[in-house]
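TA notes. Do not distribute before section.
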Amino acid sequence: MSHASLSTTVSTLSAYGWTPELDELFAPLAEAGLTPARIARVDRGQCDVVLADPESGELRTVRADSRPVGSPNPIDCPCTGDWAAVDLSADPMPTVSALLPRGTAIIRKGSGGRSDGQVLAANIDTVLIAASLAAEPDLGRIERFLALAWESGAEPLVVLTKADLVDDADHIRADVEQIAPGVTVLVVSAETGEGLDVLRACAPGSTALIGQSGAGKSTLTNALAGTDVMAVQQTRATDNKGRHTTTTRELIPLPGGGAVIDTPGLREVGLYGGEGLAQAFSEIEELAENCRFHDCSHRSEPGCAVAAALADGVLPERRWESYLKLQRENEWIASRTDARLRAERARQWKIIVKSARPPRP
């Protein structure tokens, strides 16, 4: 790719979040004749990538083979939102030849008892956590989503949807703000338009929507995009539970620049790492710093600031129990991950030893 072609491509892709830093990273790949693109959708070894046509400079979507950059580790596999280097001349179809390093990534624990991770979205600026006001918000689940969002490296934003269905939205927002220190909590209604202008202003650049089915993620995506780009289904009137409208993660361009990634509803919200937990429960971390002993277990030690806050009611018991539960889950996934890595290293060592043995006569 020529320097002029790369400049045109960079200018066009800036609406999708391309930055001068990415320009520098991509320079060697451009010299190899590859084209920068952003992955919009991944599906069974292939993906849709958005790139600037080398001839016209206009954006277009191309189907590409992503198997060459696949990996046994799911975290390293191509994901919606990744920046990729595409070989448009590959035969029989364009091929993703490399992935650029991720700036941010939402990673949750794999389903069931697995210890590996699953990337939900990459290179996003804001994680928009949607929770429906049609039912009593599950504060514990929102705390999980917040820890997941902080862990990603992006900025969390809680959006309470379907405000037109309740009369006490502001009271519920106050409750959610208590468990979301340092996070903006918005009340919106796609039906009436309430709060949507503020939401657009609070979520520039690339945004990923996460939440349970029925939280209104697809409706929010349509509202942000200014058109019906995602199908929407009604929640069940009997229990206000939603159906899986979105079945895959898809990157949607926004009219004012930037993009939004709508994700399927999450039944399991397992954390994969511990840094996000400290930020999601920052007030507990701050209390712990005032304990008399630096290794305080917050159980029976004298001078425990956490125990004092619990006794005084400053720290709600529910909040403390939620923190302990997520902390135990993090410790469990860390132990399982270490065991899996040790097993993988042992397997690789056996392969090396076997290949180094001289052939039998």
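Switch to the second chain here.
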Amino acid sequence: MPKVDVYNIKGEVVGDIYLSDDIFGVEVNTDAMHTAVVNHLANTRQGTQSAKTRSEVRGGGRKPWRQKGTGRARQGSIRAVQWKGGGVAFAPKPRSYRYTIPKKLKRLALKSALTTKVLDNNIIVLDELVMDEIKTKEFVKILKNLKVADESALVVLPEVDEKVIKSARNIPDVKTALVNTINTYDILKYKKFIITKAAVAKVEEVYA
């Protein structure tokens, strides 16, 4: 079982915790992580791009000049794709890029991503994360105490805490998430993975 230190919001070590091998100590599967990341990015695409084909562009109802005798190449419409102002060949249309991957693969990717954080010493476990008021300055102070103020960080909470979430949302490269909303992409995107003891217990319960 991986053993990591437990910190308080002052950056002091106040104990340690053993993490579950089934979640934080699996054999890392890079293929699964890659598949999960590609799937996440595809599912977040808007798919709203659109362009007009030659049948949708205004004008071009008749031939611009007669077929033969002009010395110029034959043309059927001034709205053909080779004309300025013409339609687009194979024009993109609104579509959904969403697709699903097997749940087992998704879970394996998540566990692999969490394991990489442990192996790279990029996981920080807090005894608790409680704030008296909504104050970005105080949250920045906590990050400085943990020596992660200059690095990107994903902060995982066991449940919704408006004071923490609103204090962190204006800080660049910092994102808060709940246990049931974490995903492989975010875990890998942010360098530091900050999680409370209560959230660790919940992760081990939900993803076991």
